[in-house]
Amino acid sequence: MNEQDASSSPGELLQRDKKSFYVVGVGASAGGLEALERLFDNMPVDSNMAFVVVQHLSPDFKSLMDELLARRTKIPIHRVEDGMEIEANAIYLIPPKKNMELAAGKLQLIDQNLGSLNLPIDIFFRSLAKDAKERAIAVVLSGTGSDGSRGIQDVHEAGGLVVVQSIQSAGFDGMPRSALGTGLADVVCPPDSIASRILEYIQSPSSFVDQAGQDEELSESGELATIFRLFRNQYGIDFSMYKPTTIVRRIERRVKLSRCSSLAEYSQLVEGDSRELDVLYRDLLVEVTQFFRDLDAFQLLRNNIFPRLVERAADTGELRIWVPGCATGEEAYSLAMLATECIERQGVDVDLKLFASDVHQTSMETASSGVYSSASVSRMPIEFRDKYFTRIGDLYHISAELRQKVIFAPHDITKDPPFTRIDLISCRNVLIYFNQEVQKRVLSLFHFGLSVGGILFLGPSESIGDLDKEFEPVDRQWRVYRKLRNVRLTETGPIPPQPALNRVVFNRPSYVATQTRTDKSWLVPEVYDHLLAKYVPPSLLINQHLELVHSFGDSRRLLVQPEGKATLDVLRMVEGDLRTAMNAALHKASTTGTTIMFEGVRVNTTTGERLYRLVAEPYNKSAEKMFLVTLELMQDLPVIDETVAVPFDSADQSAQRIVSLERELDYTKETLQATVEELETSNEELQSANEELVASNEELQSTNEELHGVNEELFTVNSEHQKKITELSQLTEDMDHLLKSTRIGTVFLDNDLKIRKFTAEAKEVFHILDQDIGRPISHIAHNLVDVEPIEDVRQVLETQQPIERAVESRTKGSYLMRVLPYQGIRGLAGVVLTLIDATSILAIHRRLEDPEL
Fold it and tell me: What is the chain's alpha carbon radius of gyration, rounded to the nearest angstrom?
C-alpha cells in the first residue's frame, strides 16, 4: 500500500482514476531487443498507456532502437528530450549517456556518472512509482545483472503492477531472475503475453472501488467481512481496523490479477484457496523495506539522536530499541548498526537490545535468518556493508555479533502490550494504514512503552495527532519526537496481560467451542482440569533450557511476570529463596539424574510467608529432557525420612552452588586460555591474508561491475547492429535480384574508378571476372568498337553530368551505354556504367530510316 492511498479520500482516488492513464516503464538490457519487439508486436496503438523504455546503452555508439521498433509497431516513437511531457499511446526511448526520471508527468534527463556503477532502470522505476503511484507498471525484460530489482519494490509499494519476463524466454536471465527473487512480481510470462496481461489488468472493472467513493464503511460489506474473518481466523489480525481506502487498492489488484469478475467471486476464491489468501495477506501488509531508507533521516539519527541516547544509557548500562512492523528486518538491522557504531565511538559500556516485531511470520523468518541479496544491500553505505556483512556467493549474511543484539518476536501493535523502558521506537509508515481510533491507541501504547526522554521515529506522512502535549518535536521533517513525561493516557485502556504467557503457560484450549458430538465425552477433559486445579499441588513442567512448558494446579500465586518482554524463563518468574532452591534442585537433578527434594523453602505468598517442600524430578518420558517441579505446603505433608528430604538452607545451597560454579569456571578458563593462545597465532596469519584478500576482492568486484556494465552496453549495440546487418543483407539480396531481372549490364565504380560491383550481363562487353573487384576499370579489356568507355567515365566523374550514347560490340550487336554519377550519403561516391542491349531496337530504327533494308 502506498502512503498516498492511505491519505487520499476515496472520492479523490476515483476522480484521479477517470482522468489518468497508465505509465509503463520497460527495463531491458542484453537480449532486450527481441523481447521489446515481441512486446510491441502485440500492443495495440490505442492502449491508453504511455511506454518509457530504459536500456543500458553504450555512450560511444548511436542507438538504432527507434528505427528497429518502428518496423514492428505503429505506436509513435520519441527520443526523449529534457522536460518532454508524456502522453498516452506513445513510446519514449532513453538517450545514451543519460539517466531519466518522471516528475509531474514530464521526463527529466540527468547526466550519468560514468565513473561509477549506473542503474538507470532502478532510477526510473523509483521516480515512476512516486509520480504515477497505483497507475505505474514496471516491466523487467531480458538482461544481465540486477538493475530493476530495487525499483520494482517502490512500484509495488505504490500499488502499481510488476511484470517480469519469464526466465525460460529470456536471452539473459540475470535481471528477470533478480526481480523474481524479490517475491514482488505480479505477472511472470513470455514477452508475447505481456501486452495481453497488462491490457487485461487495466481494463478489468473496478466496481467496488467506485463503491469506496460513496461508502467509507467498506469493512461492513459482506464480501470484505468474509475476507476479514478469514484473516482473523488464519493470522489473528483484524483488517477492519484499517482505513477502507487503504485496503481497497490492494484487494482490487488481487481481484484483477486473479482474473475474477467481481469482489464476490474473489471472496469465494480466497475462501477455498489458502495460497491466494496468503498472497493477499502479504500484499496488504506491504513488506517492502530497505536498509537505511531515507538516508537523510538516518544521518539525523546518527549525528544527533544516538549520541544523546547512548550517553543517557551509560547510566543504566542498556540501550533499548523497538522496531514494530519490522517486515524483513532491514530497518531493524540499520538501526542496530548505527547504535553499535555510536556505542563504539563514544567508548561506553552499554548493552544494546533491539526488539523487532511484526505480525507476519514469514517476514520474521526472513529477518531472523539475516541473509539478503546483493540488490538489497546495494543502497547502504559501503562502510556498514563491509563491516557487518559477509558475502557468500551472491548473498550477504549479517554478522553474528550484530545478529545477537536483535531480538525478533511476533507482535501485533493493535492488541498486544508494548515493550517497556524503551529508548527509541521506530515505527515508520505503519500508522497511516490504521483508522483514527486505532492510531490514537497505538500512539498511546508507544507513549506507555517509552522512557521519559525516549525518541519516537515515525514515517514522513505520519504525526503524533492529539498527543502534542506529551511529545516535543525533535525534527519535524523526519517526524522525530521526544517523550516529555510519564502519564497514563486514556486511549491506552487497561493493558492486557502478556499474550505469550497467557497462551502458553496458563490457558488450555477450549474443547467445548469445537466439539459437535452428541455424547458427553467432551466433559472428561474439563473434569480432569478441574481435579488438577483442586487437588494437585502447584507443579511446573520445565524443559532443559529452564523454560516453562506447562503449569498444573494453582501455580499463579507462586509465579510473577517480570517487566518488559514476556518470558518463559522459569527462574525469572520466581523470587527470593524459591529461586535459589529451584536453581539448586534443577542443577542437581540434571547432574545426578535423580529426584531432589528440599524442605523448608520459604515462599512469600498473598497470605504471608509459608514453608514449602520442593521436589525436582527428571522426566524422561519425552524425546526432550524435561523436569517436573512440585511445591507442597509443609503443614499438609507427612514427615519424610531426612535421608530423602534435605532441609533447605538458602545460604548453604548458595555456597555449594557457588563452589560448583567456581570449579567449572576455573576449568573453562584453563581450556579457554590454551585455545586462545593457539588461535592468536593462527589469527595473526589469517588476518594478514584476509586483508590482502579483502583488498583484492574489492578491486576485482569494482572491475567486474565495470566490465559487466560495458558488456551489457556492447551486447545492446551488437544486437542493434546485427539487426541492421540482417536488414542490409536482405536489401542487398533484393537489389541483386532486381539487377538480374533487368538483364542490364551494370558496373559500379568508386571515386578511384575501381570496380565495386557488376552484373553478369556486363561480362558480355567487359572481360571481367569475380576476382577483378577492386581493380581499376582501365585494366579491363572490352569489346566496344571505336569508343573508349574509360574516357566517358572520367568525364562524368569530373563534371558529374551523365553521358548517354549508342555503341557497337565486336561480338554481340549494339548497346545503349549510359554513364551516371553515383551520389552517396556524403556526396559523390563514384560512377555507374550501364549497357542496355539495343541491337533489335537499333535495327528497327535503321529499317525505318532506310525502307530498302
Answer: 41
